[in-house]
Design a protein that fits this description.
By secondary structure, this protein is an alpha/beta fold. The chain has one domain. The protein has 2 helices and 5 strands; from the N terminus they run ββαβαββ. The protein has a 5-stranded mixed β-sheet with strand order 2-1-3-4-5, with no helix packed on it. The protein is globular, with a radius of gyration of 14 Å.
């Protein structure tokens, strides 16, 4: 069964609809620190890396949630494992997820 990696758990969000696509794993719940030499940020990235280590880009999903910076960290780690990814795009109107696949190595001549 695929895994759905939620980039950041937000307390007010309902992630039950994501369970339709696989087992849900929350990569973090805290926010990045604005301090330049933050030990928190080092620990945060290491914890995300550990929870994300079994990510399989051909089967699993990334569900962006919360901080865009956290989502960028997750994508940087995902890029180490491939170039095409499955995402779950949240629809606020219908309260559902739409699965999409994005290939970062797609045809570069297309504008």
């Amino acid at each position: 069964m695929p895994t759905v990696y939620v980039t950041q758990e937000v307390a007010i969000a309902n992630y039950r609809p994501a369970e339709r696509y696989g087992d849900v794993v929350f990569l973090c719940a805290s926010e990045v620190s604005g301090s330049l030499s933050s030990i928190h940020n080092v620990k945060l990235v290491n914890n995300i890396r550990e929870r994300f280590r079994h990510f399989n880009p051909s089967e699993d999903y990334i569900a962006p949630s919360g901080s865009p910076i956290i989502a960028c960290i997750v994508m940087a780690l995902a890029r180490e494992k491939g170039s095409a990814f499955n995402f779950l795009k949240w629809n606020n109107r219908d309260h559902t997820y739409t699965p999409i696949r994005i290939d970062l190595e797609g045809d570069r001549d297309v504008i």
